[in-house]
Amino acid sequence: MIRCAKKTIPRGKTKHYRVFWSKHLEELKRKRDALRNTADQTGRTDDVQARRRPISLTSVLAKLMERMVNRRLTCFLDTNNILRSGQAGLRPQRSTNQQVATFSQHIKDALDARNTLTAVFVDFKSAYDLVWKEKLILKLAKIGIKHNMLNWVKAFIGQRSCKVRYENALSKSNLLQTGLPQGAVTSCTLFNVFINDTVELVQTVTGIKGLLDADDLVLWYSASKKNARERTESALNCALKLLANLIPPLGKTLRRGQKAPKLRKTLRRGRKVP
């Protein structure tokens, strides 16, 4: 839309964006309501309905502002090497294939050394919806984000509301206490900052290694065959406890599952991996 407009329009909007950027963005606090459509017209199950997310409704000009901010934030993170190499999700020029190749190499190395390797795959349920906003702001300030950028993020994620639509009915607006807006341009980058220290924390447990792809985490432990099961269970349980305490809202989803990792398969040379 802006590309097709006259040259005077983008210049005017640039000035408008500069005011937003430098004046603490009071207008940005008037959030567009996120909308959750619960109408079931496709015969979906209740489980699928429960996983539906409210989608952030923003204008084209607001999304353009988000892209400009996100580019600055991404450049700052990459220039200062803030994001850990163990995270490949939601990042440019990184992919799941890189994590699969790295994990596969560790499996091969364990087999060559005639060790056992046990892995636990963790998927945070509703990860975006459970992001602790205050903790995110503290993490941004800790890595050096301040002044206009920090004020913009505070205004962007704070005081957001949500409505539910069912057929032609629309509910009242409710304030969202946690979570990042679904469909927003900057949400992916902010989520990476929020979950950035996860792998570093679990690797404080001796022998534990891990990789992240967005909100999907794999932890593994390689050990010699002697007393391998006991040492593996102890190390992985310790890592999962640290993980549950790291991010309280996300940790709740871990506690709903089993307390101990289920050791179904142990990789050894000569056995086929299902």
TrEMBL record:
Residues 24-267 form the Reverse transcriptase domain. Pfam families: RVT_1. PROSITE patterns: RT_POL. Residues 255-274 are annotated as: Disordered. It comes from the Eukaryota. InterPro entries: DNA/RNA_pol_sf, RT_dom. This is Reverse transcriptase domain-containing protein. It comes from Rodentolepis nana.
